[in-house]
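Appendix B: complex inputs.
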Amino acid sequence: KQEVTQIPAALSVPEGENLVLNCSFTDSAIYNLQWFRQDPGKGLTSLLLIQSSQREQTSGRLNASLDKSSGRSTLYIAASQPGDSATYLCAVRDDYKLSFGAGTTVTVRA
Amino acid sequence: GAGVSQSPSNKVTEKGKDVELRCDPISGHTALYWYRQRLGQGLEFLIYFQGNSAPDKSGLPSDRFSAERTGESVSTLTIQRTQQEDSAVYLCASSLEARPTDTQYFGPGTRLTVL
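Resulting structure:
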């Protein structure tokens, strides 16, 4: 059974600081890995999707890397802003379903 | 276009009652998924539909849980004789098909509280 772990569980940083969120998974036989953002009372917003053959994906201030062989992914958020405050979820895709980590709750202090 | 919608957004019920949660997927999406998120935990897969069929029900926690889908559209997740441990946010997602390359789009969820 796929196990996904996210560290740290919570993170609080001053505005402008870079964020580093970690995700690890136990079974490297994945199709892709996805990072989501979850805001209270709202659904999940997909941020980045990395195919298993890729090493990284970038979108604006966000960059995600994937090392499938070691079962690790890292999400970098540059120059954090208060609007980045949310819970970030990592999920790996094996066939049809997603297996999620418990998330990292980020607070960016103005 | 409209995204995935779920109703109700919040549901408070008493232990032992039955509840029905509804999901309206994106029009044209043949695959539909149900996940559950307990407080402080990641989302756990419950069941998925391809069309009106459910090839994998392995995530349903007990026989009190059931789901159906009709007309390759709306899906209903039913929990019978609710227990306090059923309290969670229930999220629905849909995708064009169930292929690994098809992105899953999530609804806002239904927050279920069992007293």
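The radius of gyration of chain A is 13 Å.
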